[in-house]
Protein 1
Amino acid sequence: MIKLQNVTKIYSTGEVETTALKNVDLEITEGEFVVLLGPSGSGKSTMLNVCSGLDNPTSGIITIDQDVISSMNSKELTKFRRNNLGFIFQQYNLLQTLNVRENVEVGREVSLNPFTVEEIVEKVGLTQNIEKYPFQLSGGEQQRVSIARAVVKNPKIMFCDEPTGALDEENAKEILGVLQMLNREFQTTIILITHNPSIGVMANRIVKLNSGEIVDIIENKNVKNASEITWG
Amino acid sequence: MLFRNVYRTLKRQYIQLLLLGVIITLSSFMYTVMDYAIVGVKEPTDQYFIDANQEKFSIKTLDLMLEDDITYITNNCPAVTEIPYTISSLKAINESCYYDLQEYRISILTSEYPNIFLELREFKDVYFDYGDVSYKIRALKDSNDINLSTIVDGEKPLLDTEIAVSEMFAISNGLELYDTITIQSTTYTISGFVLFPDYSLAVFSNDLIFDNKTQTPALFSNTEFESLNATIQFELAGEYNNDYDDDIFKTEVIDTFHDRNLDFVSSVVLTINNIRSGAIYADLNGGRAQSIGLSLLISGIALMIVGIMVSKVLNKQRGAIGILKSLGYKNSEIALPYIFFIAIMALPTVILGYYLGYLAADPMKNMFLLFYLLPANPIQQSALTFFISVITPFSFILGVSYLIIIRMLRQKPVELLNPEVSSSANIITKKVGKLIKKLSITSKLQHLLLYRNLVKFAVFFIGMFYAAFLIYLSLGMVGIYDRMLFDYYDNTSHDYIGYCDYQTPCIVSGTQEKVLELPSALLDEEEVYIVGLNSNTVLHPLYDKHHNIITSDIDSGLVITKSLSVTKGFRIGDNLTLQIGDNEITLRVEGITEEYSGNKAYYNIEDLAVFIGQDASHFNTVYSETPLDAANFMVVINTQNILEQAYSMQQFFNVMIYLMIIVSIVIGAIIIYILSVMTVEDNFYNISLFKVIGYNDKEINKMVLGGYLTYGVLAFLLAIPSAIVSFYAIEILFAQFYDLLFPIQFVWWHGLIALLIYFIIFLISGYVAKRNLKQISLQEAMKMYQI
């Protein structure tokens, strides 16, 4: 479904050039739960950016289904993200002037085939808080709202950039559980970035990155539930 | 190092700081220019009015011969065998009797009010053409006690071939001392430039023309004044003793003269309420109040923006300030660079505003003197103006900045190091959110993102409202002279008006029409100009506001002018008492003619003639389409003169209109620009997130900037009723204070033009904001930031 062929990304800052990704090749199939693992500066975020069309690669080809997103212009990429992708970040990026229902509505409004807000809010366990504003929620609850905002679009692929980075273990496991449930229930492809190796146990595959290169790909035959993760 | 950091931080926002500087400079400029210009005129003016013994009030007396006057003439002027029906005509028959009668009237007044002193003020209006231009001169007879003429250059006219005119009239027409001008075939040498304290504004009628190029008050030798071929007109100039002031005078004289046996008095007006002498007081005091008000408004907007900007800049520095605090820097050490750089930026802007204002004060003062006939002093700087214009706004800006910094520095380092948690869902956003919950998210965010920062919203709304009001006000003045004069003369065909000489019968021929004009009649005790017309008149049909001819109404009652209706409150259906001499009749107001140029009432000519005791065929004026032979009349007026003057006044108003529109566009554009750029910055991460989710530029633009468009339009719409109410208030104030109609008007297309201007401002100003919006990268959403 997602195919990276010889993808390189070089950042230029003044006279300094930094290679963030070097000739990366990778294929991710539909409905797969993939964890991108690596230390800071390994190229995880760059890989997520180019895979999701948030950034263009310097060279190489990225294909999602039949669409070559590496050659799309800004307008085409916007349309592609709108119809196919969902995003979750470490920070929740909720709009403080909107309540939970309205924040989720922000994701729903641009989608062609969305779920209902109530359905998704229930899935993430926030039905009781649907009229509350972000500042009235805990960090974990706020992250659930951001997941709901991404999922309500009914995206084919979800990109999650350190979604548990700002949470304690208990809340982090709950959030991962929600993602796993979405992956299993809606067959949503999930690509999750983390520097926490323990999370890898719930993925189908673990892609290890270092210095912009894939150093290892581990097939996980024994996928565990999020609640079973031993926090590292 | 701290100084360098603050410098670089502020440097990055140079465009916004520059525009902010423009607003601060504008505010300081406005105050300085108006203050110095007004002081430059006011101080010498006050002294001049004292030296020239300006009248404290003036009394208009009827030109009509009343029963008491007739008795006086019968008893004291045996030489007058046939008593005319106007006092002015008496002068032509028997000058000595005329002056005795005037003295007699004055003695009645002074015995009724012993605290006043009166002097007869005589004048004549003389019309003449020079080249292609038509001129009007108000020749004032030199007085002995009150309203003394003042020669500012040259000498008083001593010879019958000399004249003194206003300096502005001479300058405007390229004339110098000892040049000659020809008036009614007599050539006069300009012996001097003259000022009259009762004519600080050259307004000689009710048509609001005060154009110093085509009209001037003038002084002739006394013998030449008497021989000028024009109707003598008169008023009484007055002053009171120390027992009175304006307030006491009003209560004891103005409010009582109607109840005394003073039928010959038509009005008593205090100098400050007389437009020809009082407008300067209103302008100087009003101008000062206006400049303070305008500066306060602009300063208020500027200071609110300063507050927002300083707050934003400092909030961006939270982390840096937190680190400095944790390193052990004292609050004062951290605050100092910020205060220093804000002072460095603010001081030049206020000083620049002050300096530009000082430079512009002289031209501004000269602009006053284009219209006001007054002496002026060179502009001199004053410590008080400097203080108000420079020190006050400067201190205020520093004060606001200091408070914001101190408030932030009171937080603990650990709080500063953590990102600020915004609790921006304030009570208003929650309430509004509920009200608009049925709207789409895109539309909802348009409103809610604006309400997040109420100060910013207030700045925007007040600024737009003010800009809209200025635009409506300036557009309201479009065509003011059309309404006052052009429309009236377009509807009539009498290009020439001939006033019959009392001693020589008038000749009427061809299409010329007979008219009976009586300049001082009383209608419900208000002085009006009554005109007797034939209801079949072709040359002077009367139109109502729907442009229907209503001339036939004069056969059954009165048709009054729009200005009489507004200034005196008369309406259709009112039964009014018309009084001329001792004759009284009650007449119904049958119609209101769309005429603004004076307090006139029209009545059937035959009925009017009979009413004043004359034969039904009596008339004293001739209207004509074609030129009249001046030899057959006492005075012939070409209405083209009036139209040319009106045209020149309209030109002046047009310049004012354009200036006001430009000022409002500049204010509006700066506010929209600064706020829209700020909004893009404030919503940096939101915008990035919207982009990531898949919202396109159009949708994001609508959410982030669309609110400005919606609320800007709302401000422009709300300004409409305010403008209409203000225009009505201006009309009433003018009517009450000066007995004049100032027909400033709002029409529907003003709204359209104002909205069009706003859309253009919004599109241009929003362009840069949109460019900034496009530049926000998608990855910003990934950064650690709490919105």
Protein 2
Amino acid sequence: MDLNTIKQEINNCQTSTELENVRIKYLGRSGLINQEFSKIKTATDPKAFGQQLNTLKLDVENLITEKSKTVVSENIENKKVGLPAVALAKVGHLHPITQTERQLNEVFRKLGFSIYSSPEIVTDEYNFERLNVPKNHPARDMQDTIYIKEPEYLLRTQTSTIESYLLKDHQPPIRAAFPGSVYRNEKVNHSNHFVFHQYQAVVVDKGITMKDLIGTMDLMFKTLYGPNVVVRYRCKYYPEVEPGVGPDMQCFNCHGQGCVICKYAGWIEMGGSGMIHPKVLEMAGIDHHLYSGFAFGMGLDRWTMAQNNITDIRTFMGGNLAYKPNE
Amino acid sequence: MKLIYSHLQKFLPDLSVEPQKLRDDLTMIGHFTNFYEEIDDEIVFDLDIKVNRGDCLGYYGLARDLSILYNIPLVLPEPLAYPTSNYALPIQVTSTGVTRVMAVKIVHLKNSVSPDWLQKFLKLHGVNSVSTLVDLTNYVMFMYGIPNHAFDTSRTTDKLIWENNNGKNTKFTTLDGTVLDMYPENLVISNPTEVLSTDLVGGKNSGVKPETSDTIIEVAIYNPTRIRLDSKLLKTVTEASIRLEKQLDPELIPIAINNLVKLIIDNCGGQVGSRIFDYYPNPQPALAIEFNPKLPSIISGIDIPESFALDIVKKVGSRPDITQEEDLVEEVVRFYGYDKIPTNQPISFKQLPDITPKVIYLIEQLKDKMVSEGYDEVLTWPLVSQPTDPQTVITTENSINSESIYLRQSLIPSLKAQLDQYTRYKLPHPKFFEIGKIYYLEFGQYIEKFALGKYDGNSFSEEIIDDLPQPDFYTPINTSNQAIELTSQIITLDANVISDQSPEVLLKHYQSIIDSKILWQIAISDYYQNKYTFRVSYYNCNDKTAKKIHLQTFNL
């Protein structure tokens, strides 16, 4: 089984059905490549063997993805009437949230960040204590928590919870960004939901400053909102950072004059950030005299909804969100 | 929190900045100010005060910040010299939840309707005017940020006790007539026979009346945790509780009570009828924090003169929320100006080991694969109304959305609900997928797995993807496509066309003449020689409009 033979087989495919058959032959659950994987244990150098197989698998996947763009699509309708493919080929679409997440991931990957993730059902320790929010701290009121088993198990209320795991599991230098679903005990209506999407980025290294934080955040906002976006950075309290920084975007509707959208403030609060609190670093076993770090987080739903002219957050999840089939 | 400019000037007589600038400056130093407005000839600001700055739930705390920012003097009212009285109030404090209480008796006062300025002040803070005495206690709470209370001693006697309820009362009727269920641990103010007040709301049996002539006024700070628990237990949130649950400064109590006594005597007459009672068992000495004046420059990344840093640290002095060096750094930087930090110097690229969990690459890869196969991505609710397997389902305890209390164990029921939605909107040929978490209990452990669920146009299927082989790296394909919020049913209509032009040309032609705002999809559903059947779907328009456009387009 070598890549060239497979390549030829893929190239010979004329229709989506033929291509799918090739895919199943090699990449299916009991396909030839997976069969090879079962031989890893008996290989002389299992690691090298596994790596070779992974590379092969990726190559085949990429070839098939490439080819799928040019083969004739044969879905049920055109089989029935023998239509030219151009008439009915349905295009697939990514959810707008995935698109925004990918856009941000790309910004951070280019700066050397990994993408991270962690569980959604977490203990109080990871959601609060490790973020410098002890029991009975008034900051707990900033978030209505959904409990699985009060007071210990809950659904994470913020992507900072992922930061708790990240800092515990890795030693500096650290660069990681992470999208994540987070939960709050809110009644679902047109503008609130119990689940929404946040994005966070964390850096821990020697000599990290507020200037690094603000410059990096600004780069991110300019990537998302365009080069002309006006963002100001001000003092803002969050228990897990010190000093805290709040980014506010000048209202896109009134340009700072004050209107209904910005509640007459002229500015819209975009999220929270700051230099990681020394106690947070300490709890993660990181020497805060040696290392400093920044963290920032923001919500993705409102922006992404605005991008797509969607006004109701319920549309976004399990709702009446759809995509034009040919665009 | 409302802030009236003219009353702020009582602490800052030299304050003269334009309201617009004051709004922006307050925001920049950490007190987000939504807006200001002119009401009844007063300029009123609307602020969000963060939980660490309980002191700024009073004018005094904000004035302290502004006096440093603008370098103008902070002025306190001339203190009242208390007359000497030999009478010691028989007050007892037995609860450990009390940080400091000061109290004093005022006798022979004349309570009445409040003066206009006081009524106006309270109205702008959303508080009803009751009588001069009560209104002054509220005024002092807003000015100094410390709650206080006036008891009518003809109703309570002077024998006040700060104690734990311990079963003394099982019910308690508040000033406004609400009946609260009491718990033994509630901190209360009582006399030997009954509870007179809780730590966060006064009682109907002890409050000031229009005819009140003798009163004990008290200003107290409690253990914030005690207040938070009482507020939860009593299901009561008051102007007092939102302040007392935060760290307040007990050193401010003597100033606040002195000002309150002075205001009462000025406005209601009467005289001080007791010695000042002061219970303050554990005065906390000001915290010593080592401070390196270079640190603000090191942390901010910009050059902040050491002399400036030291000056700010001296001016800020001690405050309950400042407990370590980094807190002082924030003080220095916020008064120096966050806006002095450049915004155009992001961190540069650095090669580090990739710690991305491989399942993330797999998910990205699968998403691209599904899209390349014509599937649309949807997101559904992770909390659902029905368990798939009641034995292993994880249930939320306090979800206020009573129809969504179970963590989903499968994506399929949610995808079925999605299909129902699409059917309701008559979406032609739905084909969609979701990659999301599913959750279940296994041997008492909470398990989360990633699943891929899909509807291929005929049937639903689902597989757990955590255990599939994972790529070492994957670069997702960049796409950008618009999503659409369907607001009405999609209307699909057919049209027969006879033409010798190619189907591609015909499709392009018709596509170009139908407004893209209502054209969902155009396709050829059947053809024979030069006879074509076009199938056109319209959206976000009604039946009538769709038909009209359809007839026009195809000259029918």
